[in-house]
Amino acid sequence: MNFKEHKTWKEKVPKRANPVKIRAYIYQCRDLPAADADGSSDPYITAWDTSGKMKKTSVIDDNNNPLFYESIELDYEVNDSTKLETFPPFILDVYDYDSGIFDSKDDFLGRAIVEPKNARILTQE
Fold first, then answer.
1. 11-15, 49-53, 98-102, 116-120: which has the minimum mean pLDDT?
2. Closest CA to 58 of 45, 49, 40, 47
3. CATH label of the domain that carries residue 49
């Protein structure tokens, strides 16, 4: 039997994942819930990449409408970096930072899920 006739040789080899850097521009949040006793929050935003690493913004103290104006770089591995449908959704979580409080975890304030079709591809040439 000719090896080229075997079904596994006839199948197309799946493309290997391509590493891609995603830059998320974080501008602002509006009307965050109050998580502190004084009626405000100390928000920061986290994002995860496909390698499982968490990135986060700085903490904005005492503000329910914070202005971040930061960017976060995320590492993604996708099958085709030119097609947005191969990207998983971008998930951004907002937390209230609790400092100096014993046995307290940061409070979850909200989540934004950005579908890749709503993102924009910028290429460098």
1. 11-15
2. 45
3. 2.60.40.150
Distance CA 116, CA 28 (A): 20
The residue assigned the tokens 């191969």 is 86
In 3D space, the residue among 94, 101, 107 whose CA is nearest the CA of residue 35 turns out to be: 107
Q: How many domains does the chain have?
A: 1
Residue 5 covered by a domain: no
The answer to whether 93 and 19 are in contact (CB under 8 A) is no
Residue 45 lies inside a defined structural domain of this protein: yes
Cα→Cα distances 119→38, 76, 90, Å: 36, 14, 9
Amino acid at site 123: T
Cα 81 from chain centre: 16
Query: What is the model's pTM?
Result: 0.78
Q: State how beta strands 18-28 and 54-56 pair.
A: unpaired
Do the domain assignments include residue 7?
no
- Domain of residue 92 covers 15-118
Output the CA torsion 6→8→9→14 (10° steps). 170
Q: Is residue 4 part of a domain?
A: no
